[in-house]
Amino acid sequence: MTTPITERLDAMRAFYAEGHTRELAFRKKYLRRLLEAVKAREAETAEALYADLHKSREEAYISETAIVLAEIRDQLRHLERRARSRRVPTPPVVLMRASATGSSFCDTAATMPAALTPRNDAFCGWGGSV
């Protein structure tokens, strides 16, 4: 049985899977829309924060709205740099796993240097204690 929520969620997942959100222009457009929406709802947000938490309008702006606006602006300012592809090092444990002959955790741990080996001797049947 599908509900309106699951139908909406499926539509959102399909939209994401099509790759629309990968384009920087798309991201910037929707970040700007979000920025404007937060600004437009500032009064409503302050009223809700007063009703729920008794925060004054100023406190609501400083502790909630201003932070969100600053984060959105920061994302807009640095989006291109953050979206660039970059090389990152592969952790040694992953490299060792690729070269391990066994498929179990214990076989992999046996090929690791002692400094990286987790203390699981009893678990793997090597004797000793955990």
Low-confidence stretches: 98-102, 126-130
Query: What is the radius of gyration computed over CA atoms, rounded to a whole number of angstroms?
Result: 25 Å
Counted by DSSP, the helix tally is: 7
Range of strand content: under 5%
Secondary-structure element string: HHHHHHH
What does this structure look like?
The protein is an all-alpha fold. Helix content is 68%, strand content 0%. The chain has helices spanning 4-17, 24-40, 42-53, 57-83, 92-99, 105-110, 121-124. Helix 2 (24-40) packs antiparallel against helix 4. The longest helix has 27 residues, at 57-83. The chain is extended and about 55 Å long. The two termini are 49 Å apart. The model is unreliable at 98-102 and 126-130 (pLDDT under 50).
Key words describing this protein structure:
7 helices; 130 residues; mainly alpha; disordered C terminus
Please describe the topology of this protein:
Elements lengths: L3 H14 L6 H17 L1 H12 L3 H27 L8 H8 L5 H6 L10 H4 L6
Helix pairs in contact: 2-4, 3-4
In short:
The protein has helices at residues 4-17, 24-40, 42-53, 57-83, 92-99, 105-110, 121-124.
